[in-house]
Amino acid sequence: MRSKDLNSIKSDHQSDTVLSVQGLKAYYRTTHFGVNREVKAVDGVDFQVQRNEIYGLAGESSSGKTTLIKTIAAALKPPLEIIAGRVDFAFAPDILKMQSSDLDDLRWRHLSYIVQGSMSVFNPVRRIRQSFVDFAFRHINKSRPEFDKLLDAHLARVKLDPGILNAYPHELSGGMRQRATIALATICRPDFIIADEPTTALDVIVQKNVLDMIKEIQKEMRSSVLLVTHDLGVHAHVADRLGIMYAGRIVEEGPTQTLFRNPRHPYTTHLISSLPRIGDDTMRKGLEGAPPSLASPPNGCRFHPRCPLAMERCRHEVPAMTTIGTEHRVACFAITT
Amino acid sequence: MTTPLLEVDHVTKDYVRGGLFSRQNVRAVCDVSFQIDSEKPEIFTIIGESGSGKSTLASMILNLNQPSEGTVRFLGNNLSELRSQEDRTRFMAQVQPIFQNPFEAFNPLKQLDHYLFMTARRFTQAHDDETAMRCADAALVKVGLSLAEVRGRYAHELSGGQLQRIAVARALIPSPRLIVADEPVSMVDASLRMSIVNLFKTLRDDLGISIIYITHDLATAYYISDRIIIMQHGKVVEAGEAKTVLANPQHEYSKQLKNAVLIPLI
Fold first, then answer.
1. Which of A217, A162, A159, A210 is nearest to A187 (CA)?
2. What is the pTM for the complete model shown?
3. Nearest to B218 among A206, A274, A278 (CB)
4. Mean pLDDT over residues A247-252, rounded?
């Protein structure tokens, strides 16, 4: 049954790569009073996202998720620097070398971003309609009345009443506001959508509605979504493939079902086994120790101080990503040797 | 019959919104009643969406807010009749809070042990540094840390999980009977979340402390709770044994909540 699932996923994408990240390293470099400090937030990340796919990226706070997204979207501000690697989109090869004027044309039209706090997306002193005009109007070659018509039709797709366009952001509930940001991010029918913790601030019921909506829109537009959240339940619900990030590196990657049924990296195994479920009374355990500081990460495999399978080799060598099954890759010596 | 530890008796709370001419009453909590037994420590969970009044209820239990109608009694004493500073301090020593975001609960400019010493001095017989330190260390040991690890550290140097443990340790210093934990794990990293949840179980089983656990996460609620109430728009819509209620919810809203839980495929 599982191989059938995988085949169906595979044939669906026809290996049409939209995003390819290779050997990406992005550090924060600061100098205070002559003391150089380097935070290795993204340290050697490789992955690809196919067309018509939701790629989930899971990781705890300070594992470098947000830095990775910023780099992919080429939104680089000092002290964040690219040290090595490249990011290629199907519609924009080597985005990190592009001019900012070219990036402006690209953004929203091809690459859009659903950000975490829906409250801070919209200008609080302007009506929602104004924000839509500010963000999207210039990317759509249409007259203003046509744009308004399109806007109404698009809001219906995210199940919002067009009346909200005349409201101010604070007049909407959290769920409505989050839906409005999703409408904003998808109105130009972009090829690639980055969603950073789109549902963290929402209630369980609203969360499920919003996730179902993201999935529906993605299927309809056949675009790709990079979904970033620490909540594995969300990933299980929407992601086709899943990458697990720990301390600036991807440690395991595979189709969501495979990863949940057969996690191989000890960190993934722990995350999945610690999820409480209704109807299951077995004892769950927390992980010993704390996530490492990225300013001085441990040598070798960054998970080794907390790993139950740690060996002498893990302390000195960095395990490489090794393919262990269909589309399933893991970076761990205990598994691959 | 012994007096119950906590008795919430038909409690209602109204907030007034608007100005002089546009007064509007917002009913945050509406006619909520429950009891927590003093003999048998338990984890009592309040589940609800944002705006369902669960945090208002918690603030009334902590006596930070007075109910508009109804009474909250702790060991038989009506909380709104606590007048003298002495009574209030005694009450505060027995009922301790734990807040949602450990990064905001601690002052970033102060060392963490300062909080522990302050609590020790205020609520226990520790009048000199040495006893205060001993109190703090004993509390930290209960949550799996030690004073040596915490001494002189600031809030930003520790992870959310460690900070939340310190918050629990601080709450344990006065030897409380009841801990009110408002969304204690929603800001904690996934790999550390279960260690906090398990810590609550240990507190109940080993130290005999009752815990009011406020959350919107049904899965952890199922995992640790003895009894739960489900709140919607300030009203209790369903109450009972956690396992029974969550396994087979009756009310429409509880069913919706359960259906919305994202269950990992396995």
1. A217
2. 0.82
3. A278
4. 92
